[in-house]
Amino acid sequence: MTDEKESTFLVTHVESDSAVLKDVHDGQVHTLSSNPGLAVDDAVEATVAPDPPMEVTYQVVEVAERRSLSIEESDEPPTVHERELAAETATGDLAREERAGVGEVHVLTPPEADTTDAVADVIDDREATLSRAARLGVNRVEIRSEPGVVSVRYMP
């Protein structure tokens, strides 16, 4: 009987001889006893198993897929559609919509004076933002903004 776990993980920390994976579905953190070549901000579809006998560290049994994730702030303004979504959303709220194909668009409507802070919050909450990207199966997060509108685009 093995306690193998198959999931999608975000690589949150690496050293030459270890790595830390966070399960993007349940938030559980797994410290690896070795690093099979992973890098911070990788999303990994993998199977991990606890190391005997203490079972406090894990090893990667299999990596089904690995992709690098990125967050970037674009100079482009939100799209017309994103601005329309914002207009229908109360200030301080969030609208979510699936993208055509893969991914999602999240439109935040901060007070105009707080737009820069809202963008910074998304970028600074890197682990949560990239965990969401990993769950959605995308590689790239693009942030566009104009006063009162922040679009967070989760894209392949």
TrEMBL record:
Annotated region (Disordered) at 69-97
Pfam families the record matches: DUF5812
Give the superkingdom in one word: Archaea
InterPro entries with a match to the protein in the record: DUF5812
Protein's name according to its UniProt entry: Uncharacterized protein
Its source organism is Halorubrum persicum
